User: What shape does this take?
Amino acid sequence: MRRKALAQIGTNLAEIKANEKSAFGFWTYLKSADAVEALRHGEIENAKLIHQEILDVYTALDDSSVIGEIAIAYVNLGTIARESNDFDAAYKYYQSGLKIYKDAGDFYQAGAVYYELGVTARQQGRFKTATQYYQKAFRIYEDAGDLHRLIGIYQEMGVVARYKGDYTQAILNYTKALHICGQLGHDYFAAGIYHELGEVAKLQGNLDFAKQLYYQALQIYEDKEDWYNASDEYQGLGEVAKLKSNFDEAIAYFKKALDIRVELKISNKISATVIEYGKTLEQQNNYADALQFYIQVLGNDIKHRHNEEWIYEDIQCLARMLHQLKESQFQDIWREVTGEECAGEVREVIWAGRDRLETES
Assistant: This one.
């Protein structure tokens, strides 16, 4: 349907100019939908190209009336850069969008950019900087009386507190967000907060309460048929079951999460599930099957250029399996999964990890 619509209004600047000005807005909507779909499928580079095309088209118009669309394109490119762990580029794009909004005196839209800058800083572990950005966004939305936006700010400030190990502050922020959800009747947004509260309960060792909170979130997402977010709850329930040594239950939940994530092609979430699945098998001393999952997750992380910390963890998992299995069995399973020998730099780092384990034991 989108392809047909794009064919009618044009796919490049010259074709779109030949149509009415309203065609620009519709074209942007269609292209943005393509970018969202690409991003959900882990096609980050494709999403980047689409938003860059949008930016180029609007910039080429040399028309001050579309400066808002240019700012949006910068912000979208910033988010894609962040998803690629290119934080320097993310900051540059966000700052470009922020400057446009501030120059135009549109501080409400600037609040959204401050929020994204906060998320970027938080993902880097720069919690003080993240909090400063969130506070700027909070003041803007509070002055505007936008309770809906305040939910997101409280939730993110809760995440920062959780990462800092300040669970009391995290719960306080999540509770404030939940209270606003109740005021506005936003059950759907409450689901994300139930999930975050579940994460805190899990970290505190309150596993039964964590399970209850994940279920609350899951029921909301299932009712809305939001399987993307439902997969997070299946993942959380699997992790709780694993911590309680209910391995069959854990695997059942991980299978549900994995089925959804594979169908939706969410590469980073696929990795998160596959590695936990492998660890569950490893805890049961099922090293041969665990190895198959660890090989898969390494391949997925390398293919999709996930962050180095993830790949390092993959290597450590593989080194543990090599330590437990004979080299010949390890290589046989590697060939079965990949169709080739474990060789080169990958082999070197896995074997080095195994050697360290044997030295320490």
The first helix runs from residue 2 to 9. The chain has a mean pLDDT of 92. Residues 178 and 190 are 6 Å apart (CA to CA).
